[in-house]
Amino acid sequence: MGSSTILDILGSLIVGGMLLLMGLRLNASANETTAIYHGSYILQENMTALVQILETDFRRIGYCSDWRKTADPTRSIRLADSTSIRFYTDLNHDGELDSVTYYTGPVSELLETVNPRDRFIYRRVNMEPPLKMNLGVTQMAFRYFDALNVELPTPVSDPRRVYYLHISIAVESPEPYKQEYSNDPSQYEVYWKQVRLATKNLRNR
Amino acid sequence: MGRMSILMVIGFNVLFAVMGFNVSKVATKSYENYTSYYNRSMARHIASSAANMAASALTFNPEWRDGFSNVGFSGGRFSASVTVPGPGMLRVFVTSTYNEVKDTTILILGLSNFSRFAYFSDIEGNIWWITGDTVWGPFHTQQRINVSGNPVFIGKASSKNGIHLGTRDSNPIFIGGYQSGVNLNLPRDFNALKELARTGGRHFNNEDICLQLNADGTATYRIGSWTSVPAYTMPIRDLAPNGVLMAENANLRLKGRLNGRLTVVATGSSGVAKGNVWIDSSVTYNRNPMTDPGSEDMLGIVCDNDVIITDNANNNNPANGVTVHASMLCRSGGFKADEYNRRPVAGTLTVLGGIQQYQRGPVGTFSGGRIVSGFQKNYRYDERLMFSSPPLYPSTGTYEVLSWYE
In B, which residues are within 8 Å of A147 by CB distance? Predict the structure, then answer.
C-alpha cells in the first residue's frame, strides 16, 4: 500500500464525509419543508372544511322550504354578538325551522395542544348537544351592518336590523413544526374573511 | 471506480427525485385544495347569478317562462327552468357548472298582493316621517321618502325615488332594509275584480249598499240606506262564495264584526257619490289576531276613491274611538275621516291591517301636540298579511321571492 493509496483513501473519506453531511443536511431540510407544507395543507383543509360548513349554514339564514313559516324573515337572526350568532334556518329542507348557534369556547378548553391560542368552535342545532370542532380556530369574529351599511354595535340589540354579515376566521396549526411558532405567521396561520355576506332569505320580503 | 460513480450519481438522482416528488405532492395537494374551494365557490356564484337573472327577468316580464339553456357565464355555464307549482306560484330551478363542479339554486316565487303593504302611497306630497314615527310592516311610496330625524321602519321599505333627508343629521332606521328604484303602480281599474264578483261572488250595479257584518259568520245587506227594507241576511259563503262583493258605480257603507274572509269593493267615478267605502261604525274581526293568532278572519276594503270614517254619533264617541280591522286599497283616493277639521274630538282611530292609497288623507287636526278635531292615530300592521291576503285582493302583478335555496 503506497502513500498514494493512503491519500486516495483519505480523499475519498473526506469527499464521502462531505457528501454524507450534505445528504443529512438535505434530509433535515427536506423534512422541515415537507412538515411545513404538510402543516399548511392541513391548515387549508381545516379552513375549507370549516368555511364550507359556515357558508352553507349562513347562506340559508331565514330559509324554510315551507315559506309560510318564515313570514317575516327579518326575525331569523335571534342573537348577533361579536363571537356568537344564533339564527333560524331549515337545515334538512324538511319544512321545519331549526335553530342554529355558533360560538367559540375559551382557550382554556384546549390546553393539551401546543398552540396557546386555539379554541373549540361550537355548532349547536336546536336543543341537541353542541358539536365541538377542533380545527385550530384562534379567532371567529362577526360584524353586523344595517341596510345603510352602518356597522351595528355588538351585541346587536335588535337583530332584525342586520342586513349584512362580515365574518372573519383565523386558523392556526395546532402542532407546528418543532412545536414552535416562527415569526412568519404565513407558515402556521390562514385567514378567511367573508365581506358583506347578504343572505338571500333574510330580505326577500 | 467509474461504474461506482455512475451508480452513486444514479442513486442520488433517485433519492432527490423521490424527495422532490414528496415535497411537490404536498404542495400540489394544497393547491388542489384551494382550487377545489375556488371551483365550488364559482359554481355557487354562477348559480346565484343565474337565479338573480331569472328573478330579474320575471320582474320585468311576469309572463317570462323561457328560462336559460346552457348559457356561458364567467368561465362556467348555467341553465334555468321556470315551472308553475300552483296558482300564483313559480319555481325557478337553476343548475350551474364550473370546471365540472356542479351547483343548484332553487327559488320559489309568489304573486305579490298589495295587501302585504302596511303603508303604500302614490303621492307623499309634503308628508314627513319624523322622530317618533314607526311604520310596522312593509312600506312603499312611488315618490321619495321625506325624512326628518329618526323615524323607524320596521318592515322592508322601498321607494321609487330614494330618500330625502330634511336635515343633515336625519338618520332613518330601516330595520327591515331599504330598496330604492322600486316601481309599483296601483291598479288602473278593478275590471278583473268585477268579473270575479260577477261570476263567483256578489255584484251590485248602480246601487248603494249598506253591509253589516255579523259575528256569527253572516252578513246583512240593504240597498240604498240602513233603514231600507228588506234586509237580506245570509252566511258570507252564500253572499259571496269566492269572497268578493262589489258595488259598481256606487258607494258601500260598512260596519260590524266579521267572522270569515271577505273583500268588499266600491267603484265609480271620482267624488263622494260613487266609488267610496264609508265606515259607519267600527269594523272588527270576530277573532282579533293580536290576541288570537289562530284567527282566520280577514277583510279587504277596495275602492276607486276613498275609505271614509263617517262623521256620525257612532264614530264621534271619544271613549270608544273607531276601530278598523282590514287591509284597505284606495286606487285614486285615500283613507280619511269625513269633516276631519270640523268634527269633534273623536278619540283614537285604531287600524289593524294595512293602507294602500293614492294619497294619504287627513283624520284630524292638532295644535301644540294636542288633538283639536278628529282622531288620534294608532295604526298597527296585521302580520298575517305577510303570507295571506283577503280573497282575490288586487295583485301588484309582480312576483316576490318567497324562498331561496342554495
Answer: 174, 176-178
